Amino acid sequence: MKKSVIVGLLITIIGTVMMAVALGHTGFKTIVWDDGFKVVDDQTGSVKMTKKTLKSSVNQIKFATRSRVVIQTGDVKKPTVSSSKFNEVKQSGRSINIIGKGHPRTQIVGFSMSGYSGGTGDVVITVPKDQQLEKVVGHDKNGVSISGITVNKLKLSGDGDIQIQNVHSQEPITLKNTDDTTLKNVTAPGINQTSDGGDLTYQNADFSNGATSISSDGGDVSLDSTKLKDVVINSDGGDIHLNRNSVVGSVIADADGGDINALISNRKEVQISASADDGDVSIFGSLRNSWRLSQHKNITYRLSSDGGDISVK
Hints:
Layout: H1 3-23, E1 30-33, E2 37-40, E3 50-53, E4 60-65, E5 69-74, E6 80-83, E7 87-92, E8 95-100, E9 105-109, E10 112-116, E11 123-128, E12 132-140, E13 144-147, E14 150-157, E15 162-169, E16 173-178, E17 181-187, E18 191-195, E19 200-203, E20 206-216, E21 221-224, E22 227-236, E23 240-243, E24 246-256, E25 260-263, E26 270-277, E27 281-283, E28 290-291, E29 299-306, E30 310-312
InterPro entries: Toastrack_DUF4097
Domain DUF4097: 61-312
Protein name: DUF4097 domain-containing protein
């Protein structure tokens, strides 16, 4: 008998056995090899978490992991860390480092086999409410949520979603190559963010003491009730929304293939120039490309779109 026939029969037998095992667990389930065949329950397949209280206070948090990372304040006297076995927590002096450990597994669905990473659980770091952190630096694949902290330096990277709320940073914030991002009630001298296609939403933020640069490759950019000094916004394929922001310097916004919509309350204090290739421009209800350009000391908006419309109200 040819080897190919033997291999085919073995695969068929293994597939039949795996199907029987899966059916024995109330229906078709994913089966993985993880030190033995195991059935993954998609509804209850939780990861065991371990919570530990650190021996001393910390002022630096660093992480590089595939797990979602949550940094928050709470009613604790010393910092606590909740994590799974797929992350290693190291403390050196007043610094903690979260290092994700790979967990590759083989997934069997029906008669097919493929790689499977599975869930690794969240990493939850809780610090005392009155503690100020010196530095938070991290790279993450599955998202970061930060709330309630005061920090000198905040720098995040990775293609996960970012949520930052009620955070004060002494230095400009850096967010690199992120996905969808939401910032609410965040204060910093400025922010520098790039995103590989994520939607970026800023609400009630304050970046009025420094320069701000925001760029998304394919996502929408929305700034709502945010204080700004000088800001440059680029969206490649997405729309830009500027809603009742407080600007003391200039706004330069460019949408390549998307629309720009701006709602400006203090029209007497601004000057506007706008251009739209293959699109329409409307400024305060009239088809025009500029507004009060002779007022050199006024707040300046420079808006441009290649393929989209521009509307200022």
